[in-house]
Amino acid sequence: MTYLGKILIIIGIVLILLGIIFIFGIKIPYIGKLPGDILIKKENFTFYFPITTSIIISILLSIILWLITKK
Fold first, then answer.
1. Which distant-in-sequence residues (6+ apart) come within 8 Å of 69 by Cβ?
2. Which residues neighbour 10 within 8 Å (Cβ) at sequence distance 6 or greater?
């Protein structure tokens, strides 16, 4: 049962962080504008792939989850 409790806590923290990002995401500097983020603009087409931002967010989440699950 303790494992289920940890999972629910992690899910709650992730949801809170997502909520904060949705509320303040536009105001956070450099998010989505880092070197390495791909932006292609054509006349009727825009393609955006934030690869560097995704990698940084993935690293941060991995560290946070590692700290939470560490015994």
1. 6
2. 65, 68
pLDDT, tens digit, 9 for 90 and up, residues 2-24: 778 888 888 898 899 888 877 87
Within 8 A by CB and 6+ apart from 25, the residues are: 31
Q: Where in the chain are the domains? A: 2-69
Q: What is the pLDDT of residues 22-54, one digit of tens each?
A: 787 666 676 667 888 888 899 899 888 888 888
pTM, two decimal places:
0.56
